Amino acid sequence: MGKSGRAAGARPNSSLPHRLSEAEDDGERVIEGAQLPRLEMSGRPSEAMAPAAYGAFIVHPPVIVGIALAVHRLPGPAELKFVVVLTGGVAASFGLAELAARVPAIARIIGAGPRAAPQPSAV
Description:
Largest sheet: 3 strands, antiparallel
Radius of gyration: 22 Å
Order of helices and strands: EEEHHHH
Structural class: mainly alpha
Helix content: 40-55%
């Protein structure tokens, strides 16, 4: 290895073949020449979950670890345990964030609290 931490003759990361370049084109994302349809996440479930998203992000690590430790010794295939940890972790994280958002001080911290009405700009 050289001084830069790369093996001798290794190329810098910018030349890797999986480098992504993004551009917007008629409502679709263009990634390395492939057009992917834009994923629309509007609708009742995503709009209802949106205020708790940051709170769920904050609490998910201990929730996931707790559920994983709880199912670790249970008999069953690892794939089933993964699904249990995944779905249980998402549900529990959003549930805890929603409960925490009922406390006004916490709700303001995690962004789920009431927002002030925008003031008209004087131009």
